[in-house]
Amino acid sequence: MILITGASGQVGCAVIRALSKTGIETKAFIHRDSNTEKVKESGATEVFVGDMSEEKDLREALHGVADR
């Protein structure tokens, strides 16, 4: 699984779609809960809502993400 930051933006959604088409699972890191459906529709396997400036959130978002 790959963590996509800024996942609800235009580029983030495009990356999720491209990876999803190749069978790669993604975890979308978004700032607003209201964007959850948008990234799921793009193909995100999991969604994490948090603040990138918070170390606790970043560590939690990285849980289960593969090191490639």
**Spatial arrangement of strands, main beta sheet:** 1-2-3
Poorly predicted ranges: none
Radius of gyration: 11 Å
Structural class: alpha/beta
Helix content: 25-40%
| Percentage of residues in strands | 15-25%
Taken together, the total number of domains comes to 1
CATH homologous superfamily caption:
NAD(P)-binding Rossmann-like Domain
Question: What do the pLDDT scores average to?
Answer: 95
Q: State the CATH topology.
A: Rossmann fold
Main CATH class? Alpha Beta
Main β-sheet, in a few words? 3 strands, parallel
Description:
This protein is of the alpha/beta class and 68 residues long. The chain has one domain: 3-Layer(aba) Sandwich (Rossmann fold). The chain contains 3 helices and 3 strands. The chain has a 3-stranded parallel β-sheet with strand order 1-2-3, with helices on both faces. The model has no long low-confidence stretch (mean pLDDT 95).
Short note summarizing the structure:
By secondary structure, the chain is of the alpha/beta class. It has helices at residues 10-21, 36-42, 55-62, and strands spanning 2-5, 26-30, 46-49. The protein has a single domain, classed as Rossmann fold (3-Layer(aba) Sandwich).
